[in-house]
Amino acid sequence: MNYKILAALLCSSMIATSAVEAAPKKVWITLGDAAYLQLQKLAPKTIAKESQSILPQEGLLAAERVHLVEVDESQLLGLSEAVHHELKRCGGFMFHASEAAGRQALQPTASLLAALRPSYALDNQSVVNALLPQMQDSNIAQTIVDLSAFTNRYYTSTSGVNASNWIKTRWQQMAAGRSDITVEQFTHAAWAQKSVILTIKGTDNADEVVVLGGHLDSISNQGSGESMRAPGADDDASGIASMTEVLRVMVAGGYKPRRTLKLMGYAAEEVGLRGSQDIAKSFKAANTNVVGVMQLDMTNYKGSDKDIYLYTDYTDNAQNQFVANLLTSYLPSIKIGYDKCGYACSDHASWNAQGYFASMPFESSFTQDNPYIHTANDTYANSGNQAQHALKFSKMALAFMVELGSDGAIGPGPADKVENFSGKLTVGQKQSYGPFKVGAGSDFTAVLSGTGDADLYLRKGSAPSTSVFDCKSDGVNSTESCVLNISSNGDVYLLLNGYAAANYTLKVTYRAQ
Asked: Does 123 qualify as catalytic in the annotation?
């Protein structure tokens, strides 16, 4: 063989091999409109493989579209930083293992596994009120300090693995002596850091599950690799610390739920919600009946005038109202705000994508979050050397877990009660009915039919008038209807007003207390 030709072939082969080895790894992500624009600034040649409009859902950003793109994995850190710096928020994209998985993520939100909602009744006041005073901000502070002492908690780093192990050990120690509590790590195939899951098995309704979560990883735009300094004191050591105090108080108080409770520390949130996606998908595949999810991502930096902001996009409106009711009832001094954070801003989005009821209470408004996150300066000191703000979230989360965790199985329950009335009205004549004792989590429906023209008024808590009411239905004849949603046990009152002479039949339907 000609040695010159052989040498040339070997050289060409080495160059080709080197080129292949140097080729950047391609990955698939989905992201919303705003983050997609940031990606195009970083990589102008990026073109979406598929784009879909989000189906209408209360709380979503108007006309938002989600895009599937293939990018260099090395671009994800830059994208994360651009979303943080330009859009003033975290996340913004979901990582997918394949193009097929990404296309699946663009499909409409999966059907909810729970055929019926929890009642959302606040009926465990004695338990909640006994536990709340036991919560201490000093315990939360210590956990924040301990977690932020790791060089970083990045999902591929040694210290990130060690941080996961530390949380597992800490939770195991706190739960010692409780045979109904287990702590395990959830292994992810594509990276070293594990998620941590603590389970308190329900006593007589264990098949229904309530989840409280936060992410255990951290990231920084300053440096890379094992030496990257990313203390993540607020993002999200504070969320893990708030959860840990919930666990401490439930164990110390001897609380044993009827439903199964799970506390979750998610790995790899900062790189596309990867840990929580794995877990939520596995729960969906197993048909696990998760009846409620709360995400605690950053709880200790008070950047706005309100105390707790409920984010309304990619969350469940009815459960958000339940959380607001918890705050109003148990923590009346807390000021509640509302805001939106966009596509995939934290792990609640992973559960929402699988069709589960999820809520995301946050430490500040969308534009006023902690300016130090994703840097070496996200420290306990830069949250004011305090954990009093995070304590508010611990108390809220405890109320959430106890109120949902203390209920029996969701089922069809008793049949709706139906009552029928009839009568006559002259012009201007009024007829009152009630109170109707209506159970939590049901609708009160009133239907008026007959001849002539009468108006129908409903009010919760006290009798309505023609000027004060919660629902009014009137028209040009006497076929009218009104519906009230009842979130907690209460009384409903009804008023009929003869706009013209009328012969009427009234039918009311509701779930009795």
From this structure: no
